[in-house]
Amino acid sequence: MTPRIAVAPCRKMPDYLESVRLAGGDPWELVYAADPAEAVVQSCAGLLLTGGADVAPERYGEARHATVTDVDAARDEYEIALVRAALAADLPVLAVCRGLQVMNVAAGGSLVQDIPSQVGGAVPHQISNPKDAIAHDIAIVAGSRLAGLMGAASVSGRLSVNSRHHQAVRRPAAGFVVTADAPDGVIEALELPQARFCVGVQWHPENFVASGTFLPLFAGLIAAASR
What we know:
This protein is of the alpha/beta class. Helices cover about 30% and strands about 20% of the residues. The chain has a single domain, classed as Class I glutamine amidotransferase (GATase) domain (Rossmann fold).
């Protein structure tokens, strides 16, 4: 049976949906008003958290930096509830860009609100076009789930990734471990080791749907959802 994967709604859905299909899953595009978090978790086999707007700093107890202007309060509330329900149920989760950030905040972590002004010597993290343009390399922790998923695709524990974000994880939530970072120290991946499958990445693997470079991430979600 093809596992049903709930996909958090965003403005650029096609690549996420196609990545789930290519990995062998059945994508279910959620609707805030129609799909309550608890009901979603009971009705799917896995969850994909997508990219998008900044997470409101009030959610992790900080005053807003001047650069934080694109906030969707309703989306924050919905996705935080979705993450908490999914983690409580040990539902397999793959989180992308904002998805990684909201997952970390929902679990009790905090964020860097603006990389250019708060991270010294930052490498480029906001290259918008083309959507699969390589921005920088990341270093992957050996023995991590991310390392296992990407396998031979990584060279000496490194991957080249795209990047479209100005926020990032600052303090990982309790239980989560950092499994990749950028040359400037910005966190590029988190995992929850005790979970069945819980991986978050800061880049946009869905944008490589044509080449399949990062399809193993989606395949890992589908494999966990199938068990």
